[in-house]
């Protein structure tokens, strides 16, 4: 009797799941055909509802359909590759999302991207602004490190710094600024080229900061040991970048590689922070815990609030205070190492 009841209950549940799946498929198909019809219609008329765009006066390769050459879009706007098709797709997506919301649906991704609202021609305005801010903070951190090390701290008789990791921090600063520049470009307008540049810069920075973590945490000052550690990491990162650019821009794989390199360096810093007597180890702790929490935002993606702020944009916001803290740690470390080296020399 009990068995029968359980069986009936399960079969009812199973039917409900099947019905739900079927309904979802029907709904998705409906919305899909809705968008396709909308884009087709738009490419013919140049309008979605009340909004019309001038791009549709041109064919998708930028040549005017029926007008003189001076009606073409200016060159400085053409790098964004907004053409009739992408304009239509964007506006049909907005209309569709509005309709879905009215029917109580949640946002869905289009070609792997959340439906963002454009502002002033920028695809993800919040991420662009935050990337620019990150670039500014990074530049400020690097310059203040530069001033400290060359103008405030004593130099060796041969005009070199006592601090053994100066060069590494310089490369780190340059790679970071490079990343934030391409990140701002990519979030302005994502096409394959800008995506590859953003992705490759991120991998390069993550790889290099892993090298920095190993060299600093294990106090490697010997040139040969440094090369031994760096060479395999550089080889791996180069191969991965070449693979992404010229073979397969694989999101899933890249995410795994980035998370693995990120977790590895957080672990190294955490272990070092708990073992060392470094006067600024509390900054390391905050950076490690903050970095770990920020990484969760990258992994647990959520749709953009009001069409503007998604998990990725929030992640760009958290890196601003972390960057400030990180350079402050670098400066403390330079001071600490220099003073202990000078004490030893006396
Ligand atoms: Zn980004």
Automatic annotation (TrEMBL):
Q: Which GO terms describe its cellular component?
A: endoplasmic reticulum membrane; Golgi membrane
Q: What is its main location?
A: Golgi
Entry membrane topology: Multi-pass membrane protein
- Cell compartments where the protein resides: Golgi apparatus membrane
Q: Name one Pfam family in it.
A: Per1
GO BP term (any one): GPI anchor biosynthetic process
Q: Which GO terms describe its molecular function?
A: hydrolase activity, acting on ester bonds
Keyword Aminoacyl-tRNA synthetase recorded: no
Q: Which residues cross the membrane?
A: 128-150, 162-181, 201-218, 225-247, 253-272, 284-300, 312-330
* Signal peptide (from-to): 1-19
Keyword annotations from UniProtKB, A to Z: Golgi apparatus, GPI-anchor biosynthesis, Membrane, Signal, Transmembrane, Transmembrane helix
Instruction: Say which family it is in.
Output: Belongs to the PGAP3 family.
Q: What does this protein do?
A: Involved in the lipid remodeling steps of GPI-anchor maturation.
The name on file for this protein is Post-GPI attachment to proteins factor 3
């Amino acid at each position: 009797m009990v068995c029968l009841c359980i069986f009936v209950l399960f079969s009812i549940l199973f039917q409900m799941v099947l019905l739900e799946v079927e309904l979802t498929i029907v709904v998705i198909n409906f919305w899909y055909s809705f968008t396709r019809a909308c884009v087709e219609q738009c490419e013919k008329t140049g309008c979605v509802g009340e909004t019309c765009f001038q791009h549709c006066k041109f064919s998708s390769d930028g040549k005017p359909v029926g007008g003189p050459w001076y009606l073409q879009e200016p060159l400085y706007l053409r790098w964004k590759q907004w053409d009739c098709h992408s304009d239509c797709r964007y506006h049909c997506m907005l209309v569709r999302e509005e309709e879905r919301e009215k029917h109580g649906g949640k946002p869905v991704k289009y070609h792997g991207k959340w439906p963002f609202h454009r502002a002033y021609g920028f695809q993800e305005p919040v991420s662009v602004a935050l990337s620019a801010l990150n670039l500014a903070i990074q530049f400020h951190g690097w310059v203040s490190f530069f001033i400290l090390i060359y103008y405030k701290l004593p130099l060796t008789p041969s005009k070199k710094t006592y601090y053994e990791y100066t060069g590494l921090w310089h490369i780190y600063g340059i790679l970071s600024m490079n990343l934030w520049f391409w990140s701002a470009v990519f979030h302005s307008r994502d096409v394959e080229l800008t995506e590859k540049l953003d992705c490759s810069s991120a991998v390069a920075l993550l790889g290099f900061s892993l090298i920095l973590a190993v060299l600093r945490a294990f106090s490697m000052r010997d040139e040969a040991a440094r090369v031994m550690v760096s060479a395999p990491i550089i080889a791996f990162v180069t191969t991965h970048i070449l693979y992404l650019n010229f073979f397969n821009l694989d999101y899933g794989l890249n995410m795994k590689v980035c998370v693995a390199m990120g977790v590895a360096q957080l672990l190294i810093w955490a272990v070092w922070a708990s073992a060392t007597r470094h006067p600024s180890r509390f900054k390391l702790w905050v950076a490690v815990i903050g970095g770990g929490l920020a990484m969760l935002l990258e992994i647990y993606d959520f749709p953009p609030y009001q069409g503007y702020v998604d998990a990725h944009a929030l992640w760009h916001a958290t890196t601003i205070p972390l960057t400030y803290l990180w350079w402050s740690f670098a400066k403390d470390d330079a001071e600490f190492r220099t003073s202990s080296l000078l004490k030893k020399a006396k």
